[in-house]
Amino acid sequence: MTTYFIRKLLFFILLTVVGFLNLHSQDKTIAYWEPEVSFNYKVAPLLKQNFSLGNRNYLYNDNKTQLTVRQIEIAHFSALTIQPNTSVGLGVQYRFREAFENDKENELRITEQFNFTKSDGSIRFGNRIRLEQRIQPSNLVHRIRYRFAFDLPLKGLKMDIGEPYLVATTESLLSLGKSEKPMYDQRITSQIGWSINNHLKAQLGVQFRMENYTENTEHVFLFLNSIVFSL
Fold first, then answer.
1. How far apart are CA 193 and CA 168, in angstroms?
2. What is the pLDDT of residue 157?
3. What is the DSSP letter of 84?
4. Residue 3's beta-bridge partner residues?
5. Cα–Cα nearest to 132, from 171, 98, 90, 169
6. Cβ-based neighbours of 55, under 8 Å, separated by 6 or more
7. Who's near 151: CB < 8 A, 6+ residues apart?
8. Residue 193 CB neighbour total at 10 angstroms
9. What kind and span of H or E run contains 10?
10. Exposed, middle or buried: residue 19 (CB in 10 Å: 0-12, 13-18, 19+)?
11. How far does Cα 40 stand from its chain's mean position?
């Protein structure tokens, strides 16, 4: 099973790279590199919190290759377990964009979340619903998000220290604003992670987005890498 999923992941990454190369000459194709570091910690047995710092950098935009900063963002999220495998959460994020692009605005984002997980053998499935309020000086956008995810060990039947694991997700988004048409997005993500020790994980992967696909589709590729500390 491990070999099967590794092959599937490599095939997905290959398709993503080929897709990027095929779309490379189109005006509506953008590629980013997005590194992130995050810290998880328990406040109480049923209450977990997360703090993260990340940034997004242009790799390809306006028909040219580049490496320039698009934004820096900080976020804090709290999740409360209300039943086994079920939690609700509340988060806040601030995105700095004005310092890097003069025609853009900084953004405050507030997030409400409901999350449900279920395990079947070594595979864990997750369903997540989020409501977001994206607040900018000139605009307010409400966004509804649904994500289906699964993760599994790539060696053995459980996630052990020093061994790889796979995380894959698909997410649908609907954005609603007073001064703009409804916007539909779809995101597909695949990442490989490693449990380095009990307090440290590393993840590497790729995400493909189809943004505003009912109107003027924009293809977006994000190359992701993250470090996760559990305190």
1. 11
2. 79
3. T
4. none
5. 90
6. 34, 35, 36, 69, 70, 71, 72, 73
7. 123, 124, 126, 165, 166, 167, 168
8. 20
9. helix 2-23
10. middle
11. 16
pTM of the model: 0.88
- Cα 95 from Cα 89, distance rounded (Å): 20
Neighbouring CB atoms inside 10 A of 214's CB total 11
Tens of pLDDT, residues 123-157: 999 999 999 999 999 999 999 999 999 999 988 77
Cβ neighbours for 215, distance < 8 A, ≥ 6 positions apart: 181, 183
Say if residues 189 and 205 touch (Cβ distance below 8 Å): yes
The answer to whether 138 touches 145, Cβ cutoff 8 Å, is no
pLDDT of residue 64: 87
Residue 12 near residue 40 (C-beta atoms within 8 A)? no
> How is residue 5 written in tokens?
């999923």
DSSP tag of 158: S
Phi first, then psi: what are they for 171, rounded to 5°?
-140, 135
How many beta carbons lie within 10 A of that of residue 93, not counting itself?
18
Question: What is the C-alpha to C-alpha distance for residues 111 and 73, in angstroms, rounded to an integer?
Answer: 15
pLDDT-derived band at 2, boundaries 50, 70, 90: very low
CA 223 to chain centre: 11
Rounded to whole angstroms, the Cα distance separating 9 from 135 reads 36
Q: 138: exposed, middle or buried (C-beta count within 10 Å: 0-12, 13-18, 19+)?
A: exposed
User: 3-state DSSP call for residue 140?
Assistant: strand
Instruction: Determine the pLDDT at residue 63.
Output: 84
Distance CA 128, CA 148 (A): 7
